[in-house]
Amino acid sequence: MQYSNLLDHLQNASRRLKIEHGQDSFLLLSPQELFYIAKANFSGFWFLIIDDKFYVICSQMIKEQLRGHFGNCAEIIEAAYPKTFSQTLVELLNKHEKKSFVLDKASLDVDLYQTIQAALSAQKDAPIEIKLKSGVLKNMRMVKDEQELSLIKQACEIVSQTCQEAVSFVKSNLSKNITELDVHYKILEIFAKYKTEPSFSLIIASGANSANPHHTSSQAAVCANSVLLMDIGCKYLGYCSDLTRTYYIKDDTPNAKVIVDEKEFNEAYLKVQTAQELAIQKARAGVKAADVDFAARNSFGADAKYFIHGLGHGVGIDIHEDPYLAPRAQGKLQEAMVVTVEPGIYFDGKFGIRIEDTVVITKDGCKLLTNAPYKF
Fold first, then answer.
1. Which residues are CB-contacts of 102 (< 8 A; sequence separation ≥ 6)?
2. What is the spatial distance between Cα 97 and Cα 9, in angstroms, rounded to a whole number?
3. Rounded to whole angstroms, how far apart are CA atoms 59 and 195?
4. If residue 357 lies in a helix (H) or strand (E), which one and from where to where?
5. What digits encode the pLDDT tens for the residues 301-319?
6. Fewest C-beta atoms under 10 Å: which of 99, 140, 207, 307?
7. What is the reported pLDDT for 4?
């Protein structure tokens, strides 16, 4: 990103923060905050906003790297020994006569909070107050801009293509006694080919393992006349995708062993498919997030007891972020939000089915961003 573009981004983000929170000073610490606000794909520094000024507090080790990233957009200040980051922070706040600043409580642990608080309390003048808040960037991050949407779309295209290639791998190697881990590592290999990385720990579940929504890929065999669930996602230039497909691997060979009854699977699959279709039809700007979940959950009827998780979640810098589609979800969907729609039902000891697509919310509905095949 060019410095001029970065400066425009910093100024716009800073302005939105000040309007939303009614404050003029913010300290950003977490990797997610630093990536979203400063477009830095590395951490190890503090980013301080004071009025219309931007400061980077860092060690000597990454000072030159930060200069290369920020250029003239922010003032790089080295916290040289014996001065600490916290002491440098206090100096900057005093320089601008600030008596408080905003900090997201999720971005620091108890030790770091106590360290910062000790530095603030050590000064002789009036103490500076930390205004701890939750989700400082939440509302901004929920609605994606054009650049973010472009990156998420590319991540979704990659994961969709990867799923298709993984299915081809399974078809070609089913007779070789492949395992869940074989499929797992093949998908990682495909991600590497596309110069991307997994956005979470992949879930490859065969047979009864598919009844565990967060199964850990194992040495369990991938078999014919059984179920294969693949929950996969990748991160492309900092933005995530998420996709789940559940396949029935049919073998018409006479006397072939049947692990999961095909008719029973198809009946359950149709219910999950219908639930997803109804939720997608419901999802649009202005609709309550909880109502989208209800559209899917209600369609299961008596089988709703087997739908044991929320319908979906936001996708962006994190694989799970606001907004959430769940029975107790708060708020309404807005244009340019990106969420998953992933109904599922799970029968312990038998099999589970989940169908998941990533979608972007529009004024009149939603648009599928993932497009992997639904049938094996």
1. 17, 21, 23, 25, 26, 27, 131, 133, 136
2. 26
3. 30
4. strand 357-361
5. 999 999 999 999 999 999 9
6. 99
7. 52
Q: Quick one: angle between helices 180-193 and 146-173, nearest 10?
A: 140
User: Three-state secondary structure along 31-78?
Assistant: HHHHHHHHCCCCCCCEEEEECCEEEEEECHHHHHHHHHHHCCCCEEEE
> CA dihedral in degrees (191, 193, 197, 201; nearest 10)?
30
Q: How far is CA 128 from CA 52, 78, 231, in A?
A: 19, 22, 47
How open is the CA angle 19-20-24, to the nearest 5 degrees?
55
How long a stretch of residues is the chain? 376
Give the pLDDT score at 152: 98
Summarize the confidence of residues 184-197 as an average pLDDT.
98
How large a percentage of the chain has pLDDT more than 90?
94
Domains of the chain: 3-137 (3.40.350.10), 143-368 (3.90.230.10)
190: pLDDT strictly greater than 50 = yes
Which pLDDT belongs to residue 236?
98
CA distances from 22 to 36, 242, 273, 327 (A): 20, 35, 45, 31
One-letter amino acid identity for 59? Answer: S
Is-contact 153 369, C-beta < 8 A? yes
Among 112-116, 119-123, 147-151, 339-343, name the one with the lowest average pLDDT.
119-123
Span 253-270, pLDDT tens digits: 888 899 999 999 999 999
Instruction: Give the model's pLDDT for residue 356.
Output: 98
The helix (run of H) or strand (run of E) holding residue 353 is strand 351-354
Q: 146 in helix, strand or coil?
A: helix
Burial zone of 332 (CB within 10 Å; 0-12 exposed, 13-18 middle, 19+ buried): middle
Alpha carbons within 13 A on the beta-carbon side of 301? 3
Say which residues have a Cβ less than 8 Å from residue 114's Cβ, sequence separation at least 6: none
What single-letter amino acid sits at 11? Q
The residue with tokens 């029975």 is: 327
Residue ranges of the alpha helices (H) in the chain?
Answer: 3-21, 31-38, 63-70, 85-95, 110-122, 138-142, 146-173, 180-193, 262-282, 289-299
Q: Report how far residue 66's alpha carbon sits from residue 57's, in angstroms, rounded to the nearest whole number.
A: 10
Distance, first Cα to last Cα, the chain: 41
